[in-house]
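Q: My labmate handed me this sequence with no annotations at all. I'd like to see what the chain might look like in three dimensions before we decide whether it's worth expressing. Could you predict it?
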Amino acid sequence: MISELILIVAVTVDIFIMSISCGTDCIRIPIKSAISIGIVGTVIMAISLYFSDVVSSIISFKVGSVICCAVLCAMGGMNIIKWILEKHKYRKSTKDASMLDVFICGSCADCDNSKEISVKEAIAVSTLMSLDTLICGVASGSSLNVYVVLIGTFIFQSISVLVGCLIGRKFSKVPDISFMGGILLIVLGIFKVI
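A: Here is what I predict for the chain of 194 residues:
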């Protein structure tokens, strides 16, 4: 159960930080958009867990554990590097935002500058931000309770979007804790080989 919770929290941190960023820029995220983000994250997690079973049937448990550890630690390291880039104020205007900009700066998700994340924008952002979910789920899924992970991913991501946006609106200076997702992935990776 601890491994499931660590994975769910690790893949939710980026979405949470993105929603805080939207809130601080006074960009609203309606409930339907938050639910859309949760659905996309859950579908991608389900796909990754399916492929995890396929991979685990091909390679031995010991080799799989080492590969899982390496992949999760690499993903964690990438999240920490992304956090370092954010600290250097990498940011562009939303008018010229690319997919990388959305990944680095969540408020770039408001492509039409409407000050509200539409369902279409939410699906696009969630798909992009769930790329790590796809890799992490494949790397760690074979020994996890699938139902707990999927239900937890949907609930955590949907609620974290609403709570993050609310926190961003209430506080102009919220500490950036996005590196925590990276640390959690590294911890999950280490658990795989212990």
